[in-house]
Design brief:
Blueprint: E1 13-18, H1 20-38, E2 43-49, H2 53-60, E3 67-75, E4 88-91, E5 101-109, H3 113-123, E6 129-137, E7 150-154, E8 160-161, E9 177-180
Parallel strand pairs: 2-3, 2-5, 5-6, 6-7
Antiparallel strand pairs: 1-9, 3-4, 8-9
Helix pairs in contact: 1-2
């Protein structure tokens, strides 16, 4: 019997923190948690683009509830590895969330600034309930008090890419989540 081929690691990654298989298992588990909380209720999902696109798509396939999907776009990182400015809303909600069960989905919770801003905005629209689901939680970077209701993985304070997370709009397509080599954390046209 041939030996199993070890999954390849992208050459720009220093290390892999979360494998494709681990992501898949955890997304399925999060889907079950959501089903337990929401029962058969309709959910209005608010995905934070661009980072949450892959996670949101995979997560929603694990939930058989009626789903309304809207997307918000924010900016705070630009082409840097750290957020240097207050998050700005680039594109807001188009759906009415009043009296709806709202689930905000994001790729990563680090400083808490972006999710705090968006959760506050959505709370002001008087939803029936508001919960937050993140793929990654980097507690070591928190600058404002904010906790997600559902967390995929807690990770150390390292700059990560893959599965939707990027550096200068690159690496989102990687199937695993890994630490980007310091030598690659520079802008290359």
């Amino acid at each position: 019997m041939p030996a199993k081929k070890k999954p390849s690691t992208h050459p720009d990654l220093e290390s892999v923190l979360v494998t494709k298989a681990q992501i898949s298992r955890r997304v399925k588990s999060l889907g079950r948690e959501l089903k337990r909380i929401y029962g058969d209720e309709e959910i209005t999902v608010v995905a934070i683009m661009n980072g949450a696109i892959l996670f949101t798509a995979d997560l929603l396939r694990e939930v058989d509830n009626a789903i309304r999907l809207d997307c918000i776009r924010t900016t705070s990182y630009g082409s840097a590895t750290e957020s240097h400015s207050a998050p700005k809303l680039v594109h807001g909600l188009t759906l009415d969330v009043t009296d709806r069960h709202v689930l905000i989905v994001d790729d990563i919770l680090d400083t808490g600034k972006t999710l705090s801003l968006i959760a506050g905005m959505v709370r002001g629209m008087r939803p029936a309930s508001l919960r937050v689901c993140v793929l990654l939680d980097k507690k070591g970077r928190r600058q404002v008090p904010f906790e997600a209701d559902f967390v995929g993985f807690e990770i150390p304070d390292k700059f990560v890419v893959g599965y939707g997370l990027d550096f200068a709009e690159r690496y989102r397509n990687l199937t695993q989540i890994g630490v980007l080599k310091a030598s690659r954390q520079k802008i290359h046209g």
